[in-house]
Amino acid sequence: MKSKVAVLFSRDYEEEAVYERIRAGFQLLGGADTFYKEGEHLLLKPNLVRGAAVERAVFTHPAVVTAVARVLWEAGCKNLQCGDSCGIGQAEKIMRDSKMLSGLAPYGVKTVDFSREQQVQYENGGQKLEFAMAKPVCEADGLISISKMKTHALEHITGAVKNQYGCIAGLNKAKGHTRYPNADSFARMLIHLNQCISPRLYIMDGITAMEGNGPTSGDPVPMGLLLMSRDPIALDSTFARLVHLNPEYVPTNVHGETMGLGTWHTEDIELVTEQGPITMENLVKTHGNPDYNVDRTRSRGSGILSKIGFLRIFQKKPYIDPDKCRKCGICVESCPVDGKALTFAKGPKTPPVYNYQKCIRCFCCQEMCPHKAISVR
Predict the structure, then answer these.
(1) Is residue 279 one of the residues assigned to a domain?
(2) At what angle do helices 251-258 and 232-242 cross, to 10 degrees?
(3) pLDDT (tens digit, 9 = 90+) per residue, 323-332?
(4) Is the pLDDT of residue 17 over 90?
(5) What is the CATH number of the domain that holds 123?
(6) In the structure, what pLDDT confidence band is assigned to residue 308 with cuts at 50, 70 and 90?
(7) Tell me, what DSSP letter sits at residue 254?
(8) Which range marks the domain in which residue 264 is found?
């Protein structure tokens, strides 16, 4: 059977319009009541990487999360929770400041603390992994992933698959980058993580996406889309094609298919809309964005090749713009490398300095910088 991706069109975040689109998406995928059983506790997992103005498209829009909760609540699911492990700050504060909490309140949604962890053993294909999972993820009966359509320095894009990395508790996310220090190894870990958690549904907020220096320092760009699927690889590859990025250049797509999580091949994906089926070619033609600012090159220097000196010059690197840097030190704190790959080597009144021999190119510094001062090139 083909993987079904529901494509919903919405020009803005007017609450009632977004609710109608989300409800239609559930219906196209079999109905909201097919994603839970009576009495179950479902966990909503938005992307709440850090606080920012809602219009900057840094995190999943409150109207989308609220619409998902409302549809599930009206279908009979009365035990809903919501949470995330943020890169900076606390999820509850981000939800409160963005008015997400007040939007969820009528549906009895409880916020949960993702700093509490539980060690989870996972084995697949002879490979054993251990995840420091947030306890609410382990305690919930099922999870609904609600990601944001954004660019990503390491994996090209961040969407359905990458969203589950926020299920890792607290500081363990930074540590994970040292264990999986390149795009390929990190992608394979993400696939195992998704298989371990097994979200029941993946939803992507692409009404306003982020392009350029994502996933937190990029620029908002209108895409006018919501995507929903049980298959995160099909969903992410649809996103890739919409922005004219070869899905095969996205490591999570390639490893996701070979490891059995989903498919990225167009011939194996069925696109459905409220108006009826649509081909990928027509969807890209009518709603794609060829000018979307995303890295469209194939990743180089992964794995053992990244350790060979002369090949390291081809790798992407993070750079600090001294005119934008406010010397806040968040990038230094975010670096997961022992001894730090960037420090205030020239003093606290000048921007931090990279030691590229230590840098593992995880781009945590770029992702966490709140002032758009770090870019990757």
Answers:
(1) yes
(2) 150
(3) 999 999 999 9
(4) yes
(5) 3.40.50
(6) low
(7) H
(8) 3-287
Q: Are residues 181 and 58 in the same domain?
A: yes
β-partners of residue 146 are 46, 203
With bands split at pLDDT 50, 70 and 90, how would you rate the model's confidence at 42?
very high
pLDDT tens digits, one per residue of 175-234: 888 999 899 999 999 999 999 999 999 999 999 999 999 999 999 999 999 999 999 999
**Is residue 44 a contact partner of residue 144, using CB atoms and an 8 Å limit?**
yes
Distances (CA, A) of 214 to 62, 84, 167, 374: 19, 19, 20, 10
* Statement to judge: residues 271 and 326 lie in one domain: no
Task: Name the DSSP letter for residue 168.
Answer: B
DSSP sequence for 261-292: S----GGGEEEEETTEEE-HHHHHHHH--TT-
Which residues on adjacent β-strands are paired with residue 87?
Answer: none
Structural domain count of the chain: 2
pLDDT value for 174: 83
| Domain closes at, from 287, 303, 324 | 287
- Render pLDDT for 140-162 as a digit per residue (tens, 0 to 9): 999 999 999 999 999 999 999 99
CA 137 and chain centroid, separation: 16
Tell me: do 119 and 186 sit in the same domain: yes
Q: Report the C-alpha gap between 104 and 114 in whole angstroms.
A: 18
Amino acid identity, position 100: M
- Does 11 fall in a domain? yes
Assess contact for 142 and 201: CB atoms under 8 A: no
CATH (domain of 326): 3.30.70.20
150 and 270 in a single domain? The answer is: yes
